[in-house]
Amino acid sequence: MLQESQVFEKRASQQFCYTNVLIPKWHDIWTRIQIRVNSSKLIRVTQVENEDKLKELEQFSIWNFFSSFLKEKLNDTYVNVGLYSTKTCLKVEIIEKDTKYSVIVIRRFDPKLFLVFLLGLMLFFCGDLLSRSQIFYYSTGMSVGIVASLLIIIFILSKFMPKKSPIYVILVGGWSFSLYLIQLVFKNLQEIWRCYWQYLLSYVLTVGFMSFAVCYKYGPLENERSINLLTWTLQLMGLCFMYSGIQIPHIALAIIIIALCTKNLEYPIQWLYITYRKVYKATEKPVPPRLLTEEEYRIQGEVETRKALEELREFCNSPDCSAWKTVSRIQSPKRFADFVEGSSHLTPNEVSVHEQEYGLGSIIAQDEIYEEASSEEEDSYSRCPAITQNNFLT
């Protein structure tokens, strides 16, 4: 039975099992458990779920026989163990004699999971910007062309094949073989770059240039619906990356829900604000309107009158106004024409009459009339006691 941080060194084929007894906590969201098998020569490692599966491996079957040829032979293998898996077993098979290997269980923070989570956040929150970016368009097209060139070649060949042809069986096998090659290249990318860097660099430059030419020919997306589809695809990929980058499922789902709410936060806030305004208006007591002062009333009248006159002048100068029809209905066409050209709408006589009635002169006249009326009342009051006294004496 394997234990964490304990190294087991062996020289013969053997079976191992690891039991996970720790319950994952919230701080284990980017923690990965791995069983590392490091050997001096090539070995074959088979991972199963429990001891019963190990016993089945010992029994001969056609499937086990063929699968043994398909399994990779490596001298440094990492077996991933789920945080919630109770038991994981593996079988180490030695291919060559005098092979020494070691087995150790490692629990550590995995920066790859954190980077995958950050990539998901970026795709989800910046998907609308990336879908409209030309740099993202060309870089993604070149990357897809470099990584999946074999798949693209098989797809192009399938277009030239007849519909009823046995070549489709080969094409289906070609798809699977291409995926297997891509996986194999990524696993051994460092070794390939060290030994065959010239060929790898030539391949990247050639296929990258061809992919750029194809992307340049068709150009970036311009249709709004296509851009929306790309945006939604990037956001969906971002959610998948966020979920796969966190080892604890319920925390991953909670973060996804928070991200969705944050992305569309403006809509709930608007709904809450509208609901609050309706409730506040329903419970609020009506406030009596504030009356204008005399000065505010005068200023507002002048401003609104000036504004209405400007609107009338603009309408008269616009093509919508029928000049002949308007002139035929007014008494002073020349005065109307002067007003349209920018002159005042009042004549000097009208201004003087208005000043006399409502201006400073009218106020002085009203004060004089009020003073005369008050003096007459005082005189009449002073005469009233004398008349009353005379009547009393008589």
Automatic annotation (TrEMBL):
Topology within the bilayer: Multi-pass membrane protein
Principal place of residence: nucleus
GO terms (BP aspect): erythrocyte enucleation; nuclear membrane organization
Cell compartment(s), UniProt: Nucleus inner membrane
GO cellular component, one term: nuclear inner membrane
Pfam families linked to this entry: NEMP
Spans traversing the lipid bilayer: 113-130, 136-158, 165-184, 196-216, 236-260
Key words, A-Z: Membrane, Nucleus, Signal, Transmembrane, Transmembrane helix
Family designation: Belongs to the NEMP family.
UniProt name for this protein: Nuclear envelope integral membrane protein 1
The organism of origin for this protein: Chlorocebus sabaeus
Name of the gene this protein is made from: NEMP1
